[in-house]
Amino acid sequence: MTKTALITGATAGIGAAAARLFAGRGWKVVGTGRRGDRLRAMQEELGAAFLPLELDMRDVNTLRQLDGLAGDWGGLDLLVNNAGLAPPADPLHEQDWDRLDQVIETNITGLVALTQALLRKLIERQGGIINLSSVAATYPYRGGAVYGGTKAFVRQFSLDLRCDLAGTGVRVSSIEPGMAETEFTLVRTGGDQAASEALYSGMDPMTPEDLAETIWWIATLPSHLNINTLELMPTRQSFAGFSVTRK
Ligand code: NDP
Ligand code: 8X3
């Protein structure tokens, strides 16, 4: 039977690469995002393997009705909770509340609502859930309080969800990547292309395709194996020390 994945945030970056990879390897893909033009372009590119679903992750009422996905696309083998974003990397007291709220609603509330809505379908097929957390869940940095906090939530949610799903055969994984060159920094900086290019310049960042292959690897492991958490970085990214403020 053809397998079906629902991939959120399939209009750019990691989600778009994963949609292409899964569709190219014989899966059906339900791809979501707010930008309908990009979803339609993806459908033209991938054909019948791709079902576009225009969806704002902040629209909890709609998310909660998605257990009603019917027909050929009704069964679900994999949920990739990928849609997400970061606010500018400024200290919290300098941040705009609306941006913070958008990040919390998208990265946490929407992810939980969608997961809850689709769980029964995933249990029916003994499917899998792969959540996009981040190295920001583990390693604090200035300006990362809300983003890192949301990604720490995603990791812990993934681990706790495994407890709820014990015995169902459903697998849950948290992927925690470092720097991957996508539209992530463009969004974070409010469209500053130069800042985005400068961040990834000369450091061989991970590519969206690297992460898509990682998602594929986790999803297609033998069913008796569960990757709980997986942290990965570009070789040129590493750790910094503690910060000390002297008097
Ligand atoms: P991109 O900005 O390239 O893609 C983000 C995707 O999320 C887009 O498809 C966007 O679709 C979707 N999205 C954002 N907000 C919403 C919303 N409110 N409703 C629906 N969809 C939404 O970033 P990445 O591909 O890099 O990010 C994917 C995930 O990976 C995120 O969760 C991010 O936090 C995580 N991550 C990224 C890293 C990186 O270095 N790039 C590292 C670690 C984790 P649209 O705008 O069309 O709605
Ligand atoms: C994105 C990676 O290091 O910019 O999650 O927070 S980082």
TrEMBL record:
SMART domains, per the entry: PKS_KR
Name of a matching Pfam family: adh_short
Keyword tags: Oxidoreductase
InterPro entries linked: KR_dom, NAD(P)-bd_dom_sf, Sc_DH/Rdtase_CS, SDR_fam
All residue ranges annotated as the Ketoreductase domain in the record: 3-182
Family named by the database record: Belongs to the short-chain dehydrogenases/reductases (SDR) family.
PANTHER family reported in the protein's UniProt record: ALCOHOL DEHYDROGENASE
Protein name as catalogued: SDR family NAD(P)-dependent oxidoreductase
Phylogenetic placement of the source organism: Bacteria, Pseudomonadati, Pseudomonadota, Alphaproteobacteria, Sphingomonadales
